[in-house]
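How it folds:
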Amino acid sequence: MRLCPAAAGTGIVFVRTDLPGRPVVSVRDFEGAAAPFRTAIKKGAAEVHTVEHILSALVGLAITDCRIEIDEAEVPGMDGSALDFVHAVRQAGIRECAGTRAEPLVVGEPVHVEDGMASIEALPYDGGLKITYTLDYAGHPLAQGSYEIELDAESYAREIAPARTFVLKKDAETMRAAGLGKGADYQNTVVIDGDRALETSLRFANEPVRHKILDLLGDLCLLGCTLQAHVVARCSGHRANRALVLRLRECAGQPATCDIAAREAGATARTASHDH
C-alpha cells in the first residue's frame, strides 16, 4: 500500500493497482460492501476491506485529500492499531493544498442511531470533533469503561493511534471457525478473557475503549468530509457507525432517529452479533 498526495477536493480514494484499469474507490462508496467485523468500500468489481485503521489515522492527522494505491483487496493489518500509519504519514510530511476542499459537515441538531443495545449520536458542538465512548461487555472488565477525547493531531497520535484491535476469547474462536482473522496473533490483537488480556500487556489500561474510538473515527471518514460535532457512542460497532454516517448524510443537521434493526433488516441478518 502506498499513500500519495492528492489535489484539494479529491478526498480520500483508494486505487486498486492490481486490477485492470486501476479502478478508483472513494471512501463514500461503502453502502454496497457488506463485511462482518470490519469496514469495506466497493465500486463495481473493485473492493477494499478493513479500511478503518488507515482512515482513522488520516482523520486523526487531519488529512482531507489522499490517494491510496493498494495491490490487493485488504489493507495491511500492521500491529492492529493505527500507529504505524501515523508514523509513516508524519515521516513523509503533510502539506497544505491550495484549492477548494469539501466543506465540513456541521451538526445543528441531534442525530441519533440505535442498534439493539448499541447507540450512537452526533450532537451540536462549537469546537471541532469530540468523541465520548462507553464500552460495556458484561463479564469482561477489560472491555468496560468510558473515554473522552477532543480530537487534534497530537492527542490522536498519543492517546488513540496506539490502541490495538481486540476481541473476546469466545468471539475469536467463532471467527477462526468462520475462516476470519487468519493474520491475527496475541500481539496484533488483544484477546480478552474476563479481566485479563491473553499473552500480551496492554498499552493503556483501557486500550479496548480507545480502540473503539479509533475504529469510530475511521468509519466517520466515510462521510467524505470533516465533521464538527460531539459524537457520543455506547457499545457501537462498525454497523452502527456506518448507519450514523448515512443518517448524517440524509439529515444534513436535521433531527433524526434511526432504528437499524427495522431500517436495515438485510444488513442485520448478514452481520455477526458483536460487530467490532
